[in-house]
Amino acid sequence: MKQEQPFEKSEIILTGDRATGPLHLGHYVGSLKQRVSLQWMHEQTILVADMQGLTDNAHNPTKVSSNILNVVADYLAVGIEPTQTTICLQSQLPALAELTMYYSNLVSIARLERNPTVKSEIKSKSFGRSIPTGFFTYPISQAADITAFKATLIPVGDDQLPMLEQTNEIVRKVNKLAGKKILDECRPLLSNAPRLPSTDGKNKMSKTMGNAINLGASEKEISAAVKAMYTDPSHLRVEDPGQVDGNIVFTYLDAFHPDKKYIDGLKSHYKQGGLGDGTTKKILEECLQDMLRPIREKRAEYLNDKAQLINILKKGSKSARENSEKVLFDVRGIFGLNIF
Q1: Where do the H-state alpha helices sit in the chain?
Q2: How many angstroms separate the CA atoms of 170 and 137, rounded?
Q3: What is the fold of 219-300?
Q4: Which has the closest alpha carbon to 68: 91, 45, 84?
Q5: Least CB-packed of 80, 169, 238, 250 within 10 Å?
Q6: CA–CA gap between residue 213 and residue 217 (Å, rounded)
Q7: pTM
């Protein structure tokens, strides 16, 4: 249901997702719920980052192209309203690529190599010296995204703070070249939500590793994922005292169950003994089924009308293209290239 906009929108927010798969509960807790709230208070743009998705998937481009509309359907299904939030497609904004090229001349290889976020992701993907250039330089591309919309507030996790630091370094260099403020620095908006662990309790939640519950998961998929969840390995019998810390079932109950007092009671019971893992998993499954059912149904409705999804992307991309071209004109002028 649409809400009345309570007051004039103040901050300019840019956020987005790589189109490499449908979104999951980790995205919901970490960013999507926040975006739904922010859209009524601020000017918000969501970028479907298909080009960034290709930086480590160029060998399999259909992984990106086939998921663009999936991601848009996920946005709409959780309550992101296209009349309040601009939803646009990265590849349809040519100013972003040109800005990336200009900014690339202001950043050294050594600086990119020092970026801890890049170093961590290179290691996690085992690229070694075979890292695609596009992936290696994506902090520059991200700076282009942020500055193209004059975004002042960027919702991120702690691991992304080095990316914003590098963006602001580029902003300062551009402004120094211009001799005046052309671009604005941005600030992070850190989520209060804790990072949701994967269902196996071992690896980072991933769209492709089968250790996440997608927003469009079927009842059977939800049930199977909950039954396979990691709990307390030493809790062998119902009467045994159990550990709540590190128990993925309780982590998910904390994140999604609406009755916090009830969950606190379950935790005390589990710690004392007499509460089985089967019971706690049943409670969690019922909670997730109730929460995801309307999202799944809305998502399916949107995907059954792909023309509507494409029109939303077209409209949002047209608006975003106009805004980003204005920033590009200013930056291009710094280098003396606005000849005609």
Answers
A1: 25-27, 33-38, 50-54, 62-65, 68-78, 94-104, 109-114, 116-124, 133-136, 138-148, 161-178, 219-227, 248-256, 260-272, 277-303, 306-334
A2: 13
A3: Tyrosyl-Transfer RNA Synthetase (1.10.240)
A4: 91
A5: 238
A6: 6
A7: 0.91
Q: Is 315 exposed, middle or buried (0-12, 13-18, 19+ CB in 10 A)?
A: middle
Residue 209 tokens read as: 């590793």
Q: Which amino acid is at 204?
A: K
From CA 59, how far away is CA 61, in angstroms rounded?
Answer: 6
Q: Using one digit for the tens of pLDDT, what is the confidence trace for 4-32? A: 444 456 899 999 999 999 999 999 998 99
Question: How distant, in Å, are the alpha carbons of 29, 156, 293 from that of 67?
Answer: 20, 22, 21
CATH H-level superfamily of 12-197+306-334: HUPs (3.40.50.620)
The residue with greater pLDDT, 200 or 107, is 107
- One-character DSSP codes across 83-97: TTEEEEEGGG-HHHH
Sole residue written with tokens 């991309």: 317
pLDDT value of position 195? 82
Per-residue pLDDT tens for 256-288? 999 999 999 999 999 999 999 999 999 999 999
In degrees and rounded to multiples of 5, residue 142 shows phi and psi of -65, -35
Contact 196/24 with Cβ under 8 angstroms? no
Question: What span, in angstroms and rounded, lies between the C-alpha atoms of 45 and 64?
Answer: 20
* Per-residue pLDDT tens over the stretch 160-205: 899 999 999 999 999 999 999 999 999 999 877 778 888 887 777 7
Q: Where are the domains of the chain?
A: 12-197+306-334, 219-300
